[in-house]
Recover the amino acids of this structure.
C-alpha cells in the first residue's frame, strides 16, 4: 500500500511537471527532439524523485539494460544535475524551472535532447560513455535558457552558449576527452575549396562558437555571455547588440578572434 501511495504521489508531481514541459525545444537540428507528449503515462521500469533546495529532479527509465547496469551512471547524473543546474540557474536565470525530468528512453536514438523541462537520454550512450557526464551540463542549460522562440535564426548561438557552459561549468570534461577545438576549429569545405572557411565561422555552432564566446568573455568584455543569454530570453537580441555591448560588430570580433586563434594551430 505504501508503495502504491508513493507512486501515486510521484505521478501527481509529474502531472504538475508536465504542464511546465510546454516550452519549445531549445535544441536546433537535433535528432528525435522531444515532442510534447503524455510521457507521464509511458511504460517505465523505475521512477524516482529527489529534491534538494528549490529543485526537484524526476528520473524515469524504461530500458532494461540501464536498469540492470546503469545505477552508478544514474547516481552521477543526479549529482551532476544538482551541482551544475544550481550554478547555471544562479548565474543565468534564477526563474528557471524548479522541476526537471530526466528520461532514460530506449526509443530515443540521439545522444540527448531537451524540450521544456524534459531531457531525454539514449541509454546505450550513457552506458557506453559513462564519463560523458557533462552531456547533462549542456542539456540542462537549455532548460535554463528558456528562449521560447527568442533564438529563431540564431540556433548557432543557442548551442554555442550551451557548449560554453559545458566548458566552464562541466564537472568532468577531461574524463570524457571533451575539449574545445584547437585554433579556430573549422575545416575546409572540399566541395568549395576556394571559399573563405572563416567567414561567419561563429555560425558553426557548438564547440566552435563556444570557444569564440570564451575568448570574447576573457579578452573583450566580461559578462558578454550572460548578456546574450538574457537578450535571447527576453526576445530583444539583435546583431547590433554585439557592438552596443563590446564596441565591435560580431564580424569584427570574429576577425579579431580568428587572427589570434589561428596562431594556436
Amino acid at each position: 500500500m505504501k508503495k502504491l501511495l508513493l507512486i501515486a504521489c510521484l505521478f501527481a508531481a509529474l502531472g504538475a511537471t508536465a504542464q511546465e514541459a510546454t516550452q519549445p525545444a531549445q535544441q536546433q537540428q537535433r535528432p528525435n527532439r522531444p515532442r510534447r507528449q503524455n510521457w507521464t503515462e509511458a511504460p517505465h521500469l523505475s521512477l524516482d524523485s529527489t529534491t534538494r533546495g528549490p529543485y526537484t529532479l524526476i528520473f524515469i527509465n524504461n530500458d532494461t539494460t540501464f536498469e540492470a547496469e546503469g545505477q552508478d551512471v544514474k547516481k552521477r547524473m543526479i549529482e551532476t544535475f544538482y551541482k551544475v543546474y544550481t550554478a547555471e540557474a544562479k548565474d543565468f536565470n534564477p526563474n528557471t524551472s524548479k522541476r526537471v525530468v530526466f528520461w532514460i528512453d530506449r526509443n530515443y536514438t540521439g545522444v540527448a535532447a531537451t524540450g521544456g523541462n524534459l531531457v531525454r537520454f539514449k541509454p546505450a550512450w550513457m552506458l557506453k560513455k559513462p564519463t560523458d557526464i557533462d552531456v547533462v551540463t549542456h542539456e540542462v542549460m537549455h532548460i535554463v535558457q528558456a528562449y521560447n522562440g527568442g533564438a529563431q535564426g540564431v540556433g548557432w548561438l543557442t548551442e554555442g552558449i550551451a557548449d560554453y557552459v559545458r566548458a566552464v561549468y562541466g564537472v568532468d570534461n577531461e574524463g570524457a576527452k571533451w575539449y574545445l577545438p584547437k585554433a579556430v576549429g573549422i575545416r575546409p569545405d572540399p566541395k568549395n575549396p576556394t571559399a573563405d572557411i572563416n567567414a561567419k565561422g561563429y555560425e558553426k555552432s557548438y564547440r566552435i562558437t563556444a570557444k569564440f564566446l570564451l575568448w570574447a568573455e576573457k579578452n573583450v568584455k566580461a559578462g558578454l555571455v550572460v548578456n546574450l543569454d538574457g537578450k535571447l530570453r527576453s526576445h530583444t537580441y539583435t546583431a547590433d547588440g554585439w557592438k552596443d555591448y563590446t564596441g565591435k560588430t560580431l564580424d569584427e570580433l570574429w576577425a579579431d578572434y580568428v587572427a589570434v586563434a589561428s596562431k594556436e594551430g
Q: What stands out?
A: Residues 1-29 have pLDDT under 50 and may be disordered. The longest helix spans residues 71-92.
